[in-house]
Amino acid sequence: MPAGAGSRCAKCYWQGLLQKRIQIDCALLSIPVMAESWARFGEWLGNTVGYHKAAVTVHRYLPFFSEIEESWKFIPDYRTLLEHFGAAKLRRASLPMRWLTETGLIGIDPKAREEHSDRKRIEATLKRLGNGTAERRILDGYFDKLKINLERGETSIRSIRLALTPAAALCQAGLKMGIVPPDQNVLGRYLAKTPGQRAALSGFVGYLKEMYEIEINLPRPTSRAGRSGQLTREQELLKLLKDSDNELNQQSLLEVALRYFHGMPKKTAKRASLVDISKVEDDGVELVLEGKSYWLPVDIIRRKRR
After folding, report:
1. Exposed, middle or buried, 64 (CB in 10 Å: 0-12/13-18/19+)?
2. What is the DSSP string of 216-250?
3. Which long-range contacts (CB under 8 A, 24 or more apart) does 80-88 make?
4. Whole-model pTM over 0.70
5. Burial degree of 253 (CB within 10 A; 0-12, 13-18, 19+)
6. Span 123-128, average pLDDT
7. Average of per-residue pLDDT across 179-187
8. Label partner for 73 (CA 20 to 30 A): which of 83, 117, 179, 281?
9. Is the preceding peptide bond at 195 cis, omega within 30 degrees of 0?
10. How far apart are CA 273 and CA 27, in angstroms?
11. Span 206-227, mean pLDDT?
12. pLDDT at 223 (0 to 100)
């Protein structure tokens, strides 16, 4: 024991302090089952992170348990917690969530977490267009149609998110040009800047034609000769992904990816580099070259950064 510490070692001191703080906090929980859960969590925290750190930090986790008690009076399942707190707040409560998982009180559902994240992104996409505006009503109508398909099991939340994102962008592009709903001219200009969104916009273009009787059509798909060239580029891309990750391979990989996903001319693709990346998302990156945006799978860019 250090001088002046008396007959107690440091470990015993911090362990005792942790137990006192757990008991004090137990008195703040009115439901016995929640107080018991809190005490078990505090003991687990001491064994997991050490008594010193646990004694110093244990109080910060009490609001999480208090909110659970106030909302349900018991620990609900993972989906309920996810809907109530949101994925971001659950990540901040990583240690209580870890304890709940290790003790079998809840089971993490990755699919539910992904769906929740997609729903939040859908909400953010809709909010990009002001409430009550003409363009928002168009997007809301398209969203309602997609939700019907979801109820029928014909689509997924992820697919809805991927469909709404370019639809909202097209509506915004039309708004800037003073054309609502967007017409063929707006679509042409939009795809000239973001050609990789052609397939993702097919459903929205069909919706505009059906609901608003607009003369709007997607550009023609690639010809047979183009499909043959696409197959060659696919084989070249797969070969590069298998090769060693040297500097020459990295540049070739980016070049072929742009040609494969966007049909970019070889001379133009050669001028692309990592500095052209303007935004990184969960499933891909946006690369801006000569004023136009191009989406690429994030795995290709991660490979380049190794």
Report:
1. buried
2. --PPPPP-HHHHHHHHHHHHHHHHHHHS---HHHH
3. 81/106, 82/109, 82/112, 82/113, 82/116, 83/116, 86/116, 86/120, 87/113, 87/116, 87/117, 87/120
4. no
5. buried
6. 90
7. 87
8. 117
9. no
10. 60
11. 74
12. 46
Structure tokens that stand for 42 in this block: 């505090």
Stretch 222-243: mean pLDDT, rounded?
A: 61
Residue 273 φ then ψ, to 5°: -155, 175
Question: Distance between the two ends of the chain, CA-based, in angstroms?
Answer: 49
| Spatial separation of the C-alpha atoms in residues 94 and 110, rounded to whole Å | 15
Model confidence at 304, pLDDT cuts 50, 70, 90, reads: very low
Task: Report the pLDDT value the prediction gives residue 215, as an integer from 0 to 100.
Answer: 82
Residue 244 reports pLDDT greater than 80: no
Interatomic CA distance for residues 138 and 144, integer angstroms: 10
Angstrom distance (rounded) from CA 21 to CA 71: 24
Q: Long-range contacts of range 243-250, CB-CB < 8 Å, 24 or more positions apart? A: 245/303, 245/306, 250/303, 250/304
For the chain, how many residues are written? Answer: 306
Tokens describing residue 223: 């010809």
pLDDT at 255 over 70: yes
